[in-house]
């Protein structure tokens, strides 16, 4: 298995840094190939601008059109092309980051904004009266898997259905469904560690053991059963979910997840 780890934390000695290092050593010892994009160490440029698209960028700038033109012409900046090549190389992509203000750090969102260009991550496939492009389970990254490894300062009860912060599944839905599943990735249930602001060195071995279990079970873990856009569950071209396909009583983001009886092996209940 070939694994790309995209890591977003400014402190190498942080919990996130330790989890990233543990993932590298665990997977390599198991015989896997591993590459790492350590965004802070790379001094990753987090903002999209005209310099991403070469001297032929339009004026005024049109990000989608210009990114697609530059992708087609091979004139995207070298850092973006390198990350796209890593994604195409990988079988599995692990994203290691802390949850800041209910989402990923800005540098990681900037990686998505710049790397997931038009004609690479979106705007691909047939657009017709019967098919609305290749996305949500299809597309450039189809056949690959993704896993979020997320650290959260707050306590687990704060992130459940009645918790004040809302269910973690809902908070991560825009990332897992909207960013990762959109260009075709199969998304594994996340590895989440809660209460990390209160973690001590004595607590780390238990977290590390849980993370190792998840890593060694990657190939056996069933992905979140997100509905595929072109599977027949949605009306075309409205993309409304057809009546009656959802489990009784399910609402919100959960409408877009098929019923499943499986769970991820080793999924921890602590951050």
Automatic annotation (TrEMBL):
Its EC number is 1.-.-.-, 1.6.99.-. Residues 1-215 form the Flavodoxin-like fold domain. Keywords: Oxidoreductase. It comes from the Bacteria. One of its GO terms (molecular function) is oxidoreductase activity. Belongs to the NAD(P)H dehydrogenase (quinone) family. This is NAD(P)H-dependent oxidoreductase. It comes from Streptomyces castrisilvae.
């Amino acid at each position: 298995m070939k694994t790309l780890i995209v890591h977003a934390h400014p402190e190498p000695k942080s919990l996130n840094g330790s989890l990233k290092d543990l993932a590298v050593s665990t997977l390599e010892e198991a015989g896997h190939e591993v590459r790492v994009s350590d965004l802070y160490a790379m001094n990753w440029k987090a903002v999209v601008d005209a310099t991403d698209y070469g001297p032929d960028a339009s004026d005024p700038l049109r990000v989608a059109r210009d990114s697609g033109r530059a992708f087609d012409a091979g004139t995207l900046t070298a850092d973006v092309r390198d990350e796209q090549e890593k994604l195409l190389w990988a079988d599995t992509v692990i994203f290691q980051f802390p949850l800041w203000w209910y989402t990923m750090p800005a540098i990681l969102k900037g990686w998505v904004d710049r790397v997931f260009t038009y004609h690479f991550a979106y705007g691909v496939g047939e657009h017709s009266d019967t098919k609305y492009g290749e996305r949500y389970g299809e597309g450039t990254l189809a056949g690959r898997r993704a896993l979020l490894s997320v650290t959260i300062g707050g306590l687990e009860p704060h992130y459940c259905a009645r918790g004040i912060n809302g269910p973690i599944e809902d908070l991560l839905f825009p990332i897992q469904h909207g960013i990762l599943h959109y260009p075709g990735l199969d998304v594994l249930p996340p590895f989440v560690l809660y209460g990390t602001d209160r973690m001590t060195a004595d607590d780390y071995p238990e977290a590390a053991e849980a993370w190792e279990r998840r890593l060694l079970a990657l190939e056996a873990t069933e992905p979140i059963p997100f509905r595929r856009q072109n599977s027949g569950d949605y009306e075309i071209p409205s993309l409304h979910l057809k009546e009656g396909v959802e489990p009784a009583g399910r609402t919100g983001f959960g409408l877009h997840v098929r019923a499943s009886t499986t769970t991820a092996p080793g999924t921890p209940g602590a951050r």
